[in-house]
Write the structure tokens for this entry.
Amino acid sequence: MPTDPDGPDVPDDTARARRRTATGIGVVLLALVLGAVLLSGPHHDDGRPGSDACAPRTVASWSADDTLTAEFARYGDDATRTDDWTGGDGTHSVRLPDGRLLWLFSDTFLGRVNGPPNPVGESYTWRDPAAPMVRNSAVVMRDGRLERTLPAPLFADPGPDRWRWPVAARVEPRSPGSRDKVLRVLLWVRRTGPSPWIYGVPTATEVATLSLPGLRLESVTMVHDQEQVTDPSRRVLFGTTLTEEDGWTYVFGGDDGRAVSRPVSRAYVARVPEGGLADPAAWEFWNGSEWQTRADPRPVLGDGRRAGVGSAFSVVRDDGTYVLFTMAAGAKGLTTVASYWACSPAGPWHGPEKEFAPALPHEGTAAYNPQTHPELSRDGRLVLSYDVNWMETAGAAVMLSRNVALYRPRFLTVRLGPAG
């Protein structure tokens, strides 16, 4: 799933190599549409949530969260089962009412992981190159320990050459005012397309409803169909991240900019009253001056040419301030995380603020898809994950098999402070 900088052009042989790997349409898309410079504009939100306490925010400090990173390595390396998660990207999380944490992933490896040495004598855990891969998965964590993988894929393909990537999720009433709680998961639908859409053509945003506590899939509802938008680069998929305030869920999304060469995406925002995520009529879109139903959303960040964000950014609310994390612009976009802030989901957004480069597991790998996890945050410290993948022009499939750590999330602890 399901994203990239205004960085170097991707060579044709790179695209062909990644297409042959079948390991990361989701991974590569995320890595190729990373965030860039955000455009501040004269937006005015009639609600302006958080504006009273809003103050400029930036990253004051950060450090590796080795405990969480090691837990995913432990679970992925466990060879007890052959139908569970051994690696994936996407890395969204949601807290369930009974205290469990559900982790949602896009393209996912299943199967067995073998201990070192690998077939060429290196000291890495490894998987068979023929290990199965599915388009999405969900892993249950309890008290900090990963327990099991739900039957995968959790969300079946909607048709031939189409697939679903889960993104943000939240627990909400089944309908506004209901006492019955359900889990709602935003899904991105893509389909196979010709060049330059080698990472899939965006088609729609859906919302899945799962029962609680059993996590049984009850229904999938389309909430934002984009098939009628002629230019695929103008299609908007919602759900890369969401925030909640004053009875509203603010759902952020992005377009794909240009599909392959120097992609630049715009960011958009919608809002839905609590309990209404699965009701298409309840969605309101920011049209540039106000919230409207059945409106064409207007970008709140980016100009579509040089400035913009990737669709795999994350937004969290810190007191009255909204803080956005994305990959940095330009050549740093495969190694460096940047942050921005605003007093309203509709902006104007300010930044970039302080940038930092998290550790990578191996030379030749890249970081992408920074996602915040407020459910794990405490004492003023924010947990942030980032995905990694092998990004050289050739040998990606071989490297991901030879070293399973190259396709697993890694975690940071970030502390925010005043900007400027």
